[in-house]
Amino acid sequence: MAKISSGKLHQGYDSSMGFGIAIGDMISHIRSDMPSIPKFKRADLITTGTLHALAKVLKGEPKSAYMTKLYKPEVEEWQATLNAWFKQVRSKYTPEAAEQFQKNLDADFQTLLKYAKDKDERYWRAESQETFLKIRFKSHEEKEAAEIAAERLHPVKLGHALSKYLERCISDLHGDTPPSPSPAPNGEPWEPLRLSLGWSTDEEDVDNHSESTHLTTDSFRRFMIDPDDDTEITAYDIEDAVINYLKKHERSLLKTLDFDCESSLFCVGSTEPSSLATVAELLLRFSRDLELFESYWQPKKKK
What we know:
This protein is an alpha+beta fold. It folds into three domains: 13-128, no CATH class; 140-174, no CATH class; 196-301, no CATH class. It has helices at residues 13-33, 46-60, 72-89, 95-115, 125-128, 140-153, 161-174, 235-249, 273-288, 290-301, and strands at residues 196-201, 211-217, 258-259, 266-270. Helix 1 (13-33) packs antiparallel against helix 2 (46-60), helix 2 crosses helix 4 and helix 3 runs antiparallel to helix 4. The two termini are 31 Å apart.
């Protein structure tokens, strides 16, 4: 395996994901705050601090902006909301401070708009309306015990048992039927991304007992980018996107993978299950972020 050639703390595959998650958390906090801001009469908001931190990160790390899920129409909505709020509380500032605050707010929004993507809201509106509730545990051991109990008493085939159990509790609490999943760009419900793992042994290599794991999926509708385009997404398109991504971010991993796709079945094998776990995680990211998928598929598509 090739040695890592960058000393930066966020340039590896996992570390870059961690950096992106931190940025995503800031965006999520701002999104969660926005509906309540028109009701606020106080002159000091957590939201403006979070927004300033996000602007500082984007300005200091412009090459990482591709990881952000910032969209111009949404950022413009944030700007209108915060400007309306500040207009109500401006009298609580000295004239000089109020003028400087407005300048700083405008500057931060100018930075956000610079790195925001101009994308149709059908790709992001549903996600932007999601909100989260933090659950506190007294210790890591207490959280781990809850996870083990959920896996034992309320097992699930896919996902995190404790999270799924808590979601059911919330559904039972308010007694309403959970809302339907957000529609796909073509207006139809999302097809779930089904990933399957299998194992095989090389019968001709009995002495070394060579075992291979393979990851497969035939769920391609999750990768449909443009509902008005009749172009069919095939396993080869997904293979191209995965390879292009790994070439840029984790080239050495490609040496451990053996792609064996057919048009209707994506299949990749490896003797290292951890490599397939990375591919599975990447497929999930692609299915949730069509813009990311398109950015790595498109170069191949145009050839």
